[in-house]
Amino acid sequence: MATITTPITDSTHSPIVTINAATTINEKLIPSTFPQWRAQFEALLIGYDLIEFVTGKHKFPVIDALNPTASKAANSHWIRQDKLILHAILASTSTTITPLLSACKTSCDAWTTLTRLYAGKSRTRVMQLKEDLTLSNRGSRSVTEFLQGIKVIADELAIIDHPVSDDDLTLYILNGLGVEFRDIAAPIRARETSLKFEELHDLLVNHESYLWQLEQQSATSFVPTANYSHRWRPQSFFNSRQSRWRPPAASPPPRGNTGAPRNGSFNSGQRRFKPKCQWCDQFGHTTKQCPKMTNSDFSANCAASSQRKNHKWLVDSAASHNMTTDLSNMTINSEYDGTDEVVIGDGSGLQVSHTGSLSLKTSNRVFHLRDTLCVPTIHKNLISVHHFTKHNNVFIEFHPTYFLVKDRITGATLLKGECEDGVYPFPEHLPSIKKNITAYVHERTTTDGWHKRLGHPSSKLVNHLIHAFSLPINKNGHSSLCTSCSKNKAHRQPFHTHGLTSNLPLELIYTDVWGPSHDIGINGFKYYVIFVDHYTKYIWLYPMTQKSTVQTIFPQFRNLVENRFNTKIKSLYSDNGGEFIGLKTYLSVHGISHYTTAPHTPQQNGISERRHRHLVETGLTLLTDAHMPLSYWPYAFQTAAYLINRMPTVILNNKSPFELLFNQKPNYLKLKQFGCLCFPLTRPYNKHKLEPKSKPCTFVGYSLSQNAYLCLDSSTDKIITSRHVIFHETQFPFQLTSHSNVSSSPSAGQQSSVSISIPKLFFDPPPPSSPLDMGHEVFTSSDNGPLSAPSPLQVSTPSSPLVFASPVSIQLPAPIELPASIDISASTVPSSEAIRVHKMTTRSMNNIYKLKKSFLVTKHPLPSSLEPTSVTAALADPRWREAMSTELTALMKHNTWTLVSPPLDCNIVGCKWVFRVKRLVDGSVDRFKARLVAKGFNQRPGLDYKETFSPVVKPVTIRTVLTLAVMQGWTLRQLDVNNAFLHGHLTETVYMKQPPEFRNPDYPDHVCCLTKAIYGLKQAPRAWFSALKHALTEFGFLNSKSDSSLFVFHTGSNLAYCLVYVDDLIITCNNSVFVASLVDHLGQKFSIKDLGLLHFFLGVEVIPTAAGLFLTQHKYIRDLLARTNMDGARYVNTPLSTSVPLQLNDGSSSIDSTEYCQVIGALQYLSLTRPDISFAVLNDQMTGDYKVKTLNQ
Description:
Number of strands: 42
Strand order of the largest sheet: 23-19-20-21-22-26
Oligomer: single chain
Strand content: 15-25%
Structural class: alpha+beta
């Protein structure tokens, strides 16, 4: 209540009001009740006209020099009234908040402090409150309690100027109610008008009452009959898998009187339904209440008993350790194998069963109880003052009637407890003392098991984690040498780092690209790029199919991290690769400094190089330990990055990059062994109820966008993302398919056989690179592209019949080895999928395996014709050896280089072998071509080359000359120049390394001083064109002004045209004798191959007909469709859609511009023979997101 003191004699002053907060404010202020407290206090102050004191409008009076007596009285009056308001504020706050206001001198200061603390308008607080609204759910609370909690959060948002609309508030409430209220939630969602909170409150409370009545009726309506077994099911949508709200038995229904008994028992005329115990098969009680079940029976499936022996914790200054009588109090525990005992007052000892740790949560902070002993025979839970103050950085003050826990640094009171019967128990209302019962236990494993779970880190690091986090461990196990680590972690000594430093995350980012991989990864990945934060050492890894994708990935990465951590990337450190040089404009526009290494000095980017080594070593170790193929390296490397980010390091004072970046400790109990057998819950995706709830899969990593695991389903080649997974960490599915089973023959005359089981690999076009999925939590089955699945094929020797088995193997004679390049998927023998699963009689059911003739021709190349990717593989094939020998012979014949000692301070260009299979129009193999190519990207402009432009013939010129030849009846002659670029002379001095695997044994350290323009040099096309132009002009040809690649000869009656496209020439003339003389002239200058009449030129097939020439690019079209993954696409009559308009924002957010340009360029060239698509292609020069939908169409 409020009282008015005696009025001041000065009539200008209002009476002083005294506020009794104990009677006017119904509850004291705590952090969670600020909106209610503020509403009461504001109403009280407004009622007494004192609100301007706390808002600052009624300020301290200014002294009037003309009337000092009145000014002094006014000042005194203001001070007294303000102090009374300040006292009321302090008296209405709890003991945890009062110390925060001790420094406030006026009521306005106190009011402002409380508003800033509990009604701050910061973006962080708004986001936190909105997240609380989103995650709110009713659980076991009544509807009234649930709605009150929602309303409190909404009021807090309204106080800080972020009110929640009625529609949003309704949506939050309906999402948190649960499935019991879905009958009423559906019509509420379908309403066209908004619902007020009061209306929604009435509807939900009434529906809750109805549900209560319905459950009471269903519970009392069952009457058992003799010799009749009936399983009771709740009516309507209440089934056994859904949680139901049951009011307490002793409480009446929320609304109305349904006639049901209020004491929770039936009357004498009613018979209660008797449940059946699943433990002893007797009626009348449940398994939980079964008298035949001992306490130990629960230990196999439950981590805690349903009731606690004692939940109070007593603060004891004489206890040397924290002690508990109930093991369920501990969050982490392990069995105690020692012989130490707890000595009590009479000298006897009590046995210790477990050791572990737990946490006690309060409204202000969490207190940790480490080194806690579980003593089953003790009667009380004891908190050691020594351990409590040491581990929580606090001190305790004991008073006769209470005790205080205060912060050691600030002295702020963190907790207050009352004295009861001479002891000091912790407050009983602490929510952390009770622990929910879990339906599983953490399996104990050995040190080696944790070594594998954590991704094979060092033993020192494993021991540190086990000790720091009290991880469950089986001490009876012994440590052994990890073979997988020994195979993959041998390395050289490290390099010294440079002097760049950072003080905050994202100030300095290191980046580098790894690849190409010898084994193409799943989804076609050949590279990956990493971004390493210099301050936290955190790694972001993005798999890629091309290096150029870096220019797309980095802007996405920048937007992600800058938005997530609310800071800017200031500097980027990389090498001088073209993928990073292309980012210079982008970095300059966004104000990001770009540091690069010195040329040919990757050691300066040592942090990235060291992360590469760590990632590759860890990833290969994971693959080796799981017996998985190397094609799974993208999943292994991403898992390695996930684990490395969670490994403590000495550089960060034994903190992990994850902990330093996100300011929270990682959850190590979530980790499982990579590649092990797992069973994810697949019931939500079953087609009918009789399907199994799970299927065997292979664990391949952790989701970056969800709190879930990635499981590879070998039967469907899909990735299942699920949190509900059962792991068998001692079994590895790929171990069964990767080992070779060698069976020795019983006699010397019998030949042994080798059984090889090879997984079938499927490659689909790669999806767009994205990390952060990247990592959030809906449990869905995601298809990340068909993956490599262990679905072996069966092939047997010709002497043995085919046998259907699962899995099936390849039976080969022992001396024969299976080449690694053979594509088993091209085999004509049926796979294991030919097992009969239907009534239809197929050819394979009758042991007929001969393919139909219509399927004998395939567009896919035979395994023996695959192009090698390395010189070693090429030298193993005699056909490629012959091709390389032919290339070297041509180089020597043209005196392409001379061997010299490498000069000082010169740029030496590298070289490599390129292998191509040349094919005819029908796709058959023409010849094997090997080419020695210089690495022109190492050349420096102005030093190694100057001009590089070389013209090629235009498509319109080709059509014009062909049309002229058809109209005049002239023949078309085609020539090809062998090793054309070798005929061009260099004007610059260029040094090149000797060819790989073909070094001169007498001069192994010499370099090649080039005299001819070898393939790969930037100026090579221009040098060749200059030589050819000189030869044609010498013969009398003139260069056309409209097209530099067209040469015209017109002397007397002879008229000839020569089209040039690099080393392909087309000649047409009105005189065949002139053409023969021209061919002889060119043959004297160059190595010419006369291909006869024109039939195939630049992907265009030329077919002479009676009406003229028929031009087709069907092979080019097939290759284009195969490259864009549209082999099975159906034809359309119009090249562009006539009904679907293209919008500016159609399609996904971004697309690879390189792929888009390649497709548009290919379609432009295709218009050479397909003028019907010219309009669609030439008018499709679009930019931005508009091009996405066009590419899809």
